[in-house]
Specification:
11 helices, about 20% strand, alpha/beta, eight-stranded mixed beta sheet
Length: about 325
């Protein structure tokens, strides 16, 4: 990571009241408080890919939306390129949109079905009054993502999943951003299409000096794409470090459980299921467990320390873990 990170999130929380049901409205019952993101601190260096991994419901997408001002922060600060943007005004965000973009999880939902691809790609220029010399043509944007210019005449519903994903990426590149949040960039794609999208992101990163925050539940995606990994569970970061450190030496029980859920591949190509360390469903962010939020599903949980909220502590070079039972955790379990 560079000495001065491009993005720094410090002690960030995003709490909001859930939408009330009809019954709640009839009984005048207040909606539940959702603690989607809770005291998160992380950094993303310039030209770096930080992978954010966790199950659905961990708060990953909400964190990304909060960073981009699409969800209000309840607490903490967001610093981009040295400037505090936590409470940026509408006009300030308009300028920031040119520098910070998001690749949404569902490309079809983010593309208007009434517009042709060429118009979708050049629409950001009309929104931001971009001078003509600073604009790419639709054909140039399509070429950046390895699509032919003929795709510009199509409507979104005429595209395959992989093509729609590429169009979404091309639209993101139109304003020449520095920082991109990619939310589940391979979601819904088959293996070959997913691999092609990962290769495209790597190529774009190198060619345009881009910085990425990649949100995913797929650990295999991060092993190929990211420089560092942050593991998120129920609104909090539980482990972070370099990709090799986290994957080769996973230290938090949740990280170990995520990796154990990935099948091993035998030399003959067959999958071998590993031990299931992750049981039950992730609790609701409306009522998270007290103390360590993972304790209700942790194979190593014990009364006492696990009922106290753990903070991130450094256990190695650029390797942080939030577990009160570290470092005797696995020694105790083996006895």
């Amino acid at each position: 990571m560079s000495a001065t990170p491009l993005l720094r999130v410090e002690n960030l929380s995003a709490h909001f009241t859930d939408r009330r049901s009809l019954r709640d409205r009839l009984t005048r019952h207040a909606g539940s408080m959702v603690r989607a993101v809770d005291h998160v601190t992380l950094e993303v260096g310039r030209n770096e890919v930080l992978g954010l991994v966790g199950e659905s419901g961990s708060g990953k997408t909400t964190l990304g939306r909060t960073i981009l001002g699409l969800q209000a922060a309840s607490l903490g600060t967001i610093t981009f390129d040295g400037a505090d943007i936590t409470c940026a005004s509408r006009s300030e965000w308009r300028a920031l949109r040119r520098r910070m973009q998001m690749i949404f999880q569902d490309p079809f939902a983010s593309l208007s079905p009434r517009m042709r691809v060429a118009s979708l790609l050049t629409e950001p220029y009309r929104i931001h009054d971009t001078p003509e010399p600073d604009r790419f043509s639709a054909s140039e944007l399509l070429e950046m993502v390895s699509l032919s210019s003929e795709q510009g005449s199509k409507y979104p519903h005429e595209l395959s999943g992989g093509q729609a994903r590429r169009v979404g990426i091309a639209r993101t590149l139109a304003l020449r951003p520095e920082f991109i949040i990619a939310d589940e960039p391979t979601s819904g794609l088959d293996v070959s299409a997913a691999a092609a999208i990962l290769n495209l992101i790597q190529d774009l990163r190198r060619e345009h000096s881009l910085t990425f925050l990649v949100i995913t539940h797929n650990v295999n995606t991060l092993s190929y794409l990211s420089d560092r990994i942050a593991v998120m569970y129920l609104g909090r970061i539980v482990e972070s470090g370099s990709t090799r450190t986290v994957l080769d030496n996973p230290s938090h029980p949740y990280t170990r459980a995520l990796l154990a859920a990935v099948p091993d591949i035998e030399p003959d190509g067959t999958d071998v299921e590993q031990a299931n360390l992750l049981t039950g469903e992730i609790p609701s962010p409306r009522n998270p467990p007290s103390g360590c939020r993972f304790r209700t599903r942790c194979a190593y949980a014990k009364p006492g320390a696990c009922y106290e909220l753990p903070e991130l502590q450094e256990i190695g070079t650029d390797h942080l873990i939030a577990c009160n039972r570290w470092p005797t955790l696995y020694d105790d379990a083996s006895q």
